[in-house]
Amino acid sequence: MIWNEAMETMPRPDIEALQSQRLRELVAYLHERVPFYTKSMDAAGVVPADVRGLEDLPRLPFTKKSDLRDNYPFGLFAVPLSEVSRTHASSGTTGKPTVVGYTQNDIDIWAEVVARCFALSGAQPGEMFQNAYGYGLFTGGLGMHYGAEKLGLTVIPVSGGNTARQIMLLQDFGPQIMACTPSYALTLADALLEQGIDPDDLAVRVFILGAEPWTEAMRQELEAKLKVHAVNIYGLSEIIGPGVSNECVEAKDGAHVFEDHFLVEVLDPVTGTAVPDGEIGELVFTTLTKKAMPLLRYRTGDLASLNREKCICGRTHARMSRIVGRTDDMLIIRGVNVFPSQIEAALLGQPHVSPHYRINVTRADHLDQIEVQVEVTERFFREVGADVFAGHAETAVSETNELKQTIHHTLREALGLNVQVSLLAPGEAPRSEGGKLKRVFDNRVLK
Ligand code: DLL
After folding, report:
1. Cα 89 to ligand 1 centroid, rounded to whole Å
2. Is the pTM of this model over 0.85?
């Protein structure tokens, strides 16, 4: 089902004409209402009346995360606070959160795009939806909630975490659709297995997963373990929250960006100029319809490529690839660029290893060291014996050494880099307790 056929299947020239018109209106709106944009446009020599449309996009100024921080908390709002219906905030790793605001109309737009996401994922009105994204300042919970209601789903607003309760609801309420982070889906899958629950006995058919990076290999793993379709949803608070783009269950080949609301560019992160379709660059979004806190050319830091070809699902909206990394999570190890997603993809193809891992980066004697710690499967652990892992026994050491060497070799092929490999016993790597999971620990600089 296509939720908004007129918009989602619009011929590309019409999409571009609509975007041009909305962009013109946005530029005038921001210049008039937000002092930050008055200044940045004036400094760039942009006169709103001269902006004709998409062809003028490259000369419009960017917005960066630091601009949101500098204008904390409400400095980028374009309407008086009395017209703001809701705020959300993303928890940044250091210091103050990034704050965003929505008018009632913005909330309606958000529900509309999230309803499209559910339809893209294969949900049908009348079905039930278990929402395991966190409710609160995080946009995941409430963002998914309103979109689900709009599509006509029955929502179970359980929020993140509490795996025993999640499983009870899956069994007793029988939702067909579930949403959470991919790392939490893995926690759930493991818990089901541990409790001897066959996913075939559950009604759940689709998992809508996002809010953190994951790989195609992780999709295979989750789909096999949970016996569901695992579909990718992307979004960020600054632009709206979840619902900037979503894969269609038909193709599972890139997430359709809702281009009537979000104008997407993929730029060279260094020069800031456009890269051709199909090439990886930084995603940059302009909100075309929001009123409380619209953003012009927001630099997301997320790296992906674009595909503007028509999709087998019938939609014409451009598709973005998975996020292959972030401009700020690329590890530079002895001069070699490494993205954690490359490590995940390489690890998950290996026998005897589980999808649970941790990456440590350190520096000793001015030399970067990267260590990948990966859990072995329960079966391998049982066969080899716990003593080996505790370092108490000589027996079977060769088997673990062999496994380490295989992983080392695979990672060297994939990354062009020597990686130290350690094996962990089942349960030793970090698990998601409901939200986003941190797997990379870069200890080279004190943050
Ligand atoms: O994570 C919004 C969201 C909620 C998206 C629920 C999907 C589902 P923030 O907390 O502001 O918002 O974090 C946004 O998370 O810039 C990406 O780096 C990352 N991210 C979000 N979705 C994906 C995804 C929400 N599908 C930041 N794949 C973004 C990879 C993702 N990274």
Report:
1. 13
2. yes
